[in-house]
Target: alcohol dehydrogenase
Amino acid sequence: MEDGKSSSQSAGKPIRCKAAICREAGEPLVIEEIMVAPPCPYEVRIRIICTSLCYSDITFWKLTVPPACVPRILGHEAVGVVESVGENVNEVAPGDVVIPTFLSECGECEDCCSKRSNLCSKFPFKIHPWMPRYENSRFTDLKGEVLYHFLFVSSFSEYTVVDINHVVKIDPAIPPDRACLFGCCIATGVGAACKVANVEAGSTVVIFGLGSIGLAVVKEMTGGGADYCFECVGLASLVQEAYASCRKGWGKTIVLGVQKPGSQLSLSSFEVLHSGKTLTGALFGGVKAKSDLPLLLKRYTDNELQVDEFVTHEVKFQDINRAFELLMGGKCIRCVIWMDK
Model:
């Protein structure tokens, strides 16, 4: 390691590898050979070990209006090994096992220094086609055409480049097919319950995906409404149902699902004023990537968090479109995609 750069043979050079590319909205991903540029200052190039498919990937895979853009490399739940680093990168080195995260933590801005927010203001979350610092891409196809990034991660590629503020070093002993889930779903779900809602023992909790029938059943079962409602699907109508199902006075609705950009909520101002309920968002479950993920991972290794049950299917990288079929068909919770298995 010298001047923040790796001494590996591939350091400082483009890498030719395979990626699953979304070339048309809603069409099967196409596995092609691409070129991945070396990392610029403050960036890390990562060899992906495995990645999992999140429904947010499907939402943006289907999207046909801005911020949709093609050709794009989707994927944001992953674990990998640092291949090389750019200048001014000191917290990880080649060979380190890392989780790339869609949410940054710079450690310097007011939000990152506060316990009350996980929303970095120096490198804010965006549905963005570029690297966060330089407004450009590290991917091109073999014709030289630019391929767009997704959520600052783009893990549906054998190699990707991620800003250092989006990289968390982890214990290499943690199974990669479990560690990858902490890049989104586990952190979001656990964080929403423990950090944002702060659910107490004995509380009534409802996870929303039941539709209007569930709305009536919930109020009956909870004696006037649930203490906490979690909307995990990403539908504005379901957010409204969840809010309506909360108990007056102290009920709290937490929105986790990713809805299409531009979607609007319609709430009665009378109900908002008179019901005394709370409606809040919980991007990444209120979790700070670098500060909190190691703590969550330790809870997993200490057998306090149940994660194994989330992984219901596994596929090889060349069968990535099968993962889409399984998730959209309601046949799996999480499908892990192995890059070289």
Remarks:
- Residues 1-7, 210-217 have pLDDT under 50 and may be disordered.
